[in-house]
Amino acid sequence: MDADNKVRRKEVLSSMCDERARMLQDQFSVSVNHVHALAILISTFHYYKNPSAIDQETFAEYTARTAFERPLLSGVAYAERVVHSEREEFERQHGWTIKTMQREPSPVRDEYAPVILSQETVSYIESLDMMSGEEDRENILRARATGKAVLTNPFRLLGSHHLGVVLTFPVYKSKLPTRPTVEERIEATAGYLGGAFDVESLVENLLGQLAGNQAILVHVYDITNSSDHLIMYGHQDEDGDLALLYESKLDFGDPFRKHTMICRYHQKAPTSWTALTTAFLFFVICLLVGYILYGAAIHIVKVEDDFHEMQELKVRAEAADVAKSQFLATVSHEIRTPMNGILGMLALLLDTDLSSTQRDYAQTAQVCGKALITLINEVLDRAKIEAGKLEMETVPFDLRSILDDVLSLFSEKSRNKGVELAVFVSDKVPEMVMGDPGRFRQIITNLVGNSVKFTERGHIFVKVHLAENTKPVADTKAENCLNGGSDDSVLLSGAHQFKTLSGYEAADERNSWDSFKNLVSYEESRYDASINMTVAGETSQSVSLMVSVEDTGIGIPLIAQDRVFMPFMQADSSTSRNYGGTGIGLSITKCLVELMGGHISFVSRPQVGSTFSFTADFGRCKKASFNETKKPNTEDLPSSFRGLKAMVVDGKPVRASVTRYHLKRLGMLAEVASSVKRAVSACGINGSSCGSKIQPDIILVEKDSWLSGEDGDLSLLMLDRKQNGHMFKLPKMILLATNITNAELEKAKAAGFADTTIMKPMRASMVAACLQQVLGIWKKRQAGKDTQNGSLRSLLCGKKILVVDDNMVNRRVAAGALKKFGAAVECAESGKAALKLLQIPHSFDACFMDIQMPEMDGFEATRRLRMMESQANEQMNGGDTDEGLAQKSEWHVPILAMTADVIHATYDKCLKCGMDGYVSKPFEEENLYQAVAKFFKVKPISDS
Amino acid sequence: MNIVNQLQRQFIDFSTSLHREGFVDDQFTQLQKLQDENSPDFVVEVVSLFFEDCEKLINNMARALEQTQGVDFKQVDASVHQLKGSSSSIGAMRVKNACISFRSFCEAQNREGCLRCLQQVTHEYSLLKNKLQTLFTLEQQILAAGGSIPVVD
What we know:
heterodimer, A: alpha/beta, six-stranded antiparallel β-sheet, 31 strands, rod-shaped, disordered C terminus, B: mainly alpha, AHP1-5/YPD1 (chain B)
């Protein structure tokens, strides 16, 4: 842009300069031509005419009148050529002497050129010898040699003091030949016509006529002498735009002289807007970029600072977290120690004679203290997990019995709520696995505890299977859908029921019968192949189990589902008000599951229920170590039921499977019938057709099925029973129920069911006990007199036994029975009395304790007794052993609970209080024998 | 000898009828088996204990149920429980069954039902007492006549 501008500027300058040069040249040549004409005039009228037609007057007048033709010439004059020989003649003729330029009489020379004719404007030069001036002389010589107009160097003119040049034309006397030589010209020369050009005013004039005069500065130089330029026009000191100038050649018709015109602009080129804006923009951009860089730098510095700050904060936060965990661990521990003291003292306080109010206060304090200890343990667990200090045990344990134990803990609660509680463990799950039974128990307890807490109706179902089995189930499930889904939908009294354990809808459909059935059948189909499979299965060292706990409770609100596993978070603040708890349980559970190499997840729908599932890795247990490592707390399931056939009558297939699972654990073969009618036809108890069909020893009837079944079916059963005659072949009928009223019980008995009802939740040991009770009598009848009588006698003979019962009659009967087997019996009528008798040292070999007693029940008495014993043991181990004590290594009197209802007396609770077992009341020899045999097994041998 | 035989038959018939009519069950038989030369009066002893106990409990219950307002069902229930325990211990089946329905009324806090049951229990108790007294008298007579008490299975 700028370059364009420059080019255009230069073009304008050159055109202007050329124009001026041309005009100047034209005007000049016009004047020169006129002078030329004048020269011809003089030669014509002065020399060719004789006498001369021109004198001074005529010349002056003529020149004055034709002056307009020569605007550039200040004046013209004619000087005649006078050789020295003619000087005197000439001076005489004119009447004056030839003078030099300095107006002095001319010295003697070869030749003179005195002015004889002159224009009035320059009349002062008349009689002056033009050849006396250096410039003019040279001019004259050159002019007569060339015959052309010649110019002098510029010089200050005499009159005006303007710079000017003098133009000289030769005037010849005679006509010259066409090609005259220089000598011929000199010979013919008669005189010289000269005129002074006032160049300054000429140019001034000229420029004044042209546009753009102000814009440019013009100088005219004589450059004949190339080293020394003589200025003809313009002020030397005027300097315009020095950067740009233009030179035009001038030809004034004198080939000897060279002239040039130089033009430049008056002012420098105005700087262009584009340049300005560009510069400005560039500046702005630079500024912005600079600012951006500055900002970025500042930002980077700030971010770095922030980062450092964050890092420091993170380090501090982590340190605080560690400190918090340590603090929690320490404090929990520190709280536990005094809490144990408080609880111990409270226990001792309860021992003393207290009024009932005082006792109530103390007991409340004890309950609260225990709750606090539980909470502290949980917090300690949590802290331990956070600190990474929780280590997992790896010992073999029986998963099924742990599940049974946990269920028994909640059986009371669930039964009170009318919630069905059940457990199912897949056959593929190994009997014994390696892992941490305590922690596994804790997880299950937490989950089931939660479920029990939040469930008011329906069921809670714990299911365990191999994690790898879930996949084929999913496949078969999809297949099932393709085939058209369920073909035998369960419709009970017109309302659709979900095929879950209790018929209530569950959040996760995985446990519904459609898939569950597949799981079971899948396992059965693999059962044949399992012989081969086990070889492959045993080789892998670990087994991954999938445990799910399903409930039909209130569910978890959708918004709260994200933070279920966060510690101290409950669904909302009202939860802890309504249901209690700290919300720490699930977070501990999650940590424990993760420590077991699994993960936990859940599906929950509000008002429908929740299903928590977790996987966990356990080690496989080598078969050889089974017997040695069996933990003392694992219940031995009696093997006496092996091979018995059972028929389960239950309309709900999932529940039936659970029942069957428990029966299978006892070694029984179980068949399922969906209704009583089907059971009747399947059993083949209907008269003659018994040959091909199975003959169950026991029929287990679910209460729902029994109640919904028609009376006709039952009476049919009854009828068959009576018709059949031979009593021993008849199956026993046992009722299964979650809760049952006495009226229903009576009705059941009337319908031919056994006295004992199996109350849910089912546990293998409990089922075994019930079956024993039902079948035991039957067996006795079958086998006649019990052969174990003698052995029982051998066991109990000579033993000193304490019987504790508040009921006098019971006491007497129990004592009588024991005495009969040779035992020495003492009686106590209350827990307190028993404790007095059992003050250490004592000589009792065993204690039979009634559970339900006023003031101090059997459990409480046992707890105290155990406390006493442990104190005594400590003392004994600590100090010197007394003589009497030295015989026994440790005090531990076997205590057996006596209870009328075997079913409700949970084995677990007995064990928890420190009891060693239980016997049914009134005594049955077999039962008694089994219970007693555990403790006295060794002694008869050592005695004998 | 004739008298002894006659008495023995009478004894067997009577105890069979006791079983058949449901006054006593297997447990009573077991109790009888426990009686031997070391404790010759075991059954009588236990049964009289039972009767004493029963009377006491029945009186307690009657007293508790006399109140028209604010009957202490808990106490009644405890008594019934005791009674049930003792009756099942000696095998007094009808008393025991009466106790079972009694307890359900206690749970329901139904005073009318309780009173009815109490009446029934009292009735059963006195019936049983009469029957057993007859039985024991027979036993005494057999022993006095120099015979042995037959074992009823």
